[in-house]
Amino acid sequence: MNWGHKITISFILFAALVITMVIISMQQNVNLVAPNYYEEELAYQDQIDRIKNYEALSLKPSINKKGTQFQLSFPTELAGEVKNGEIHFFRPSDAALDKKIILKLDTNNMQRISTASFRKGLWKVKLRWQSEKKEYYSESSLIL
Fold first, then answer.
1. Contact at 8 Å (CB) between 124 and 117?
2. Which CATH architecture has domain 37-143?
3. How confident is the model at residue 75 (pLDDT cuts 50, 70, 90)?
4. So where are the chain's domains?
5. Which uninterrupted H or E stretch holds 34?
């Protein structure tokens, strides 16, 4: 085997490696954090204001896992002011599993959400609501 054959074999192996890497990378699922990521980034100052409004609250809503449900509870002082809102269950590993639920508090200032349709793993809970004067946003992590 002379040096010409060695160069040819090296080139063929390198080309096969490059083709294999291209095929593998084309099969990977790549998700952005949000489909309209760039528009959300431009309006991020509003999001910062919502977070500051939330952090300024003395009594904050909480979300916990109780049995087979997520239980969101609002303090009585806040619940009367809630005009509308949304709970976004964000799955960092798979955007197809994300769920958005309209905020509807019951007479006990709570909302219960069944975990039956949720897969086990890490979920980020993004709570956003609006009162008469301000908008609020909080984010927490839950493991199911």
1. no
2. Sandwich (2.60)
3. confident
4. 1-30, 37-143
5. none
For residue 21, CA distances in Å to 17, 29, 103, 132 come to 6, 15, 45, 54
In single-letter form, the type of residue at position 8 comes to T
pLDDT digits (tens, 9 = 90+) for 83-103: 889 999 998 888 788 899 999
What whole-number distance in Å separates Cα of residue 115 and Cα of residue 95?
17
pLDDT digits (tens, 9 = 90+) for 32-61: 666 677 777 777 888 899 999 999 988 888
How many C-alpha atoms does 80 have within 13 Å on its Cβ side?
2
- Phi, psi values for residue 110, rounded to 5°: -130, 160
DSSP 3-state percent helix, strand, coil across the chain (nearest 5) = 35, 30, 35
pLDDT at 29: 74
Residue 33 identity = V
